[in-house]
Amino acid sequence: MSTPEAGLLVALVGNPNTGKSTLFNALTGLRQRVGNYPGVTVARKSGTCDLGDGQKVELVDLPGLYSLAAASPDEQVVIDALSGNIAGDRRPDAVVLVVDSTNLLRNLFLASQVAELGRPVVIVLNQADVAKEQGLRIDTERLSRRLGGVPVVLSSAWKGEGILDVRRAIARAIAQQTQMKRVAWPTNIAAALVDVATAAAADTGKPISEAEAQRLLFDTNPSTADRLGWTLAQREKTLRTARDRVRNSGYNPMAAEPLVHYAHLRLVLEGVVTEGAGKAGRSAAVDRLLLHRFLGPVLFLGIMLGFFGSVFWLAKFPMEWIQAGVDWTKAIVAPQLDAYPMLQSLLADGIIGGVGAFLVFLPQILILFLFIGILEDSGYMARAAFIMDRLFSWCGLNGKSFVPLLSGFACAIPSLLSTRTIEDRRPGSRPPSSCRS
Fold first, then answer.
1. In which element (H, E) is residue 287 found?
2. What is the mean pLDDT of residues 194-206?
3. For domain 8-176, which CATH number applies: 1.10.287.1080, 3.40.50.300, 3.30.70.260, 3.90.380.10?
4. Which of 53, 7, 8, 4 is nearest to 32 (CA)?
5. What is the CA radius of gyration of the chain?
6. What share of the chain is helix, strand, coil (3-state, %, to 5)?
7. pLDDT score of 292
């Protein structure tokens, strides 16, 4: 019997709001561990997944992202984790890509990029129940063949449907080492990638993988070059020449990667998804209402008013009960120590009073984060960030800043931690008002 500590590591990857964490919980149950990646405030959430027949693997739930072009620290962690570039963490033996069944084209872009890493892959088409409601029928066998034979599984993680199939697919991917079919680059882009890889290898003395060459050529973020030790002076001329070569072939170097990948995926998906009678209009109608130019902000204000009103109203009663319990405990303990005033002050005012002051605010914090979790799981948090983007733009922030600011109403610490989702470090470094006061 293999153990996750000495055995295999499987990474769970996907776009935000695809049900990835719900699938992680369904696969691992209560066998979870939470830590931090070294040097960053990004949580490492892992657990033990039983694949059957006595085989167990360590499953790690990586932060959600849309592409391998890192725009924030947590996205960079995903890339480093998949590449095996995190100290003390090994390279995953397989990757489970969680895809929204209702939007295969957009979600498979990340999968197509991950294929370049050369790892066995499992494609989980999650939220299959929603796709069925919308009248979408997905030919998983045809999709599997076109992606190179990798396992493709339908699931509805929140309903617990398809979980056993996912376990079996992971076991099959590890056993067969089936890799996803990679995109075929146009001749000039392929040559530019070879030039970049060759020059970087010569300058750094390190072998450069195809995936690393793509990040060097297509990304404006220098994180990959910095990690490899390829200095600006060394890479500047090479990258300029390679990007000119891409440009001369008719592509914008910064847009070439998604253009080629999406062209490849459109061919892959031909005939895979068929549309029937369903409720496709329901989700679109809700989006039109929530994101409406005038009604959207009004609904947002109403939801936030109800949100904070509920937090303070629901927290009022447990806070009063906890305060009464603390006062009662102090009233019992203090008279017993009248002969020892210093010890009495330490216990009654210091320990009991101090712990009580923390416990009194705990219901408010817990209820706030419960509601934040509900907003995230429902998908409204992303829509709220979209609505707030224009409002925040005047002070140099974007819509993603809404999440840290919302968290800061309960406590400044989670607000500071959540600033890692902001691409620009400068607005992320501005402390919330609760820290400055």
1. helix 280-290
2. 93
3. 3.40.50.300
4. 4
5. 25
6. 60, 15, 30
7. 80
